[in-house]
Amino acid sequence: MQALILSGGQGTRMRPFTLYRPKPLLPVANVPFLSYPSALLRGSGVRSIALCISQTSAPYRSFIASEKKLGTEIRCFSEFEPLGTGGGMKNAEEFIKNWPCFIFNGDVLTNANLKKMIAFHKSTGSRATIALVKIIDPSACGLALSDAAGKIHDFIEKPSRDYLNKNPMEYWINAGVYLFEKELFDLMPKGKPCSVERDIFPDCLRQGVPLYGFKLQAEDYWIDMGTPQKYLEANRAVL
Length: 239
Description:
Layout: E1 2-7, E2 27-28, E3 31-32, H1 35-43, E4 48-53, H2 61-70, E5 73-78, H3 84-91, E6 101-105, E7 108-110, H4 114-124, E8 128-135, E9 142-146, E10 152-157, H5 161-166, E11 171-180, H6 182-186, H7 196-207, E12 211-215, E13 222-224, H8 228-238
Parallel strand pairs: 1-4, 1-6, 4-5, 8-12
Antiparallel strand pairs: 2-3, 6-11, 7-13, 8-11, 9-10
Helix pairs in contact: 3-7
């Protein structure tokens, strides 16, 4: 199997740490952050990864060489104009030779069981499986609503407090880890900005393309390392 890691952001929320180093290469417990998703993927049989980046590949050369020694081949795909999550994926589509393909957001640290996610994806016939994580307050996030079998039927972006009060439930949000079949890439425009979350997933629901949510368990660690506070928390967790 293969994987894409979306690392095309500018890291503005992480400044000043990202003024001279791309966010995916920031050290977590003295190891470049990208080493963690790469190791997780390698343990699930993924030995070929594309990095979707927004700058030259030069800062990544040492990391790529280190990963090659561990058995993972890495190739960079640069976007010199912001393309969004979907546009960044489409920019690297030529890399993918085998389906389904894992997609990771470049600031997600997790130890999710990817082998179980693969088995779930294949058993449901899903065209895109989205890892979901349960949180207490989803007001700043996007809710994914699914049925008992895990099939997603709606997304609610940043639900209001009134909505949450009227709809008490377990709140599951997009964890930024996906398994995509080629049909998802066929919906993405080439060379144009596109958001998977705001454009592609709603299109899938309208067209009846089956999307499923794979719910992370309580023992699965997950954090979006997008702010200095979360970055510190991730370092503490790894230590």
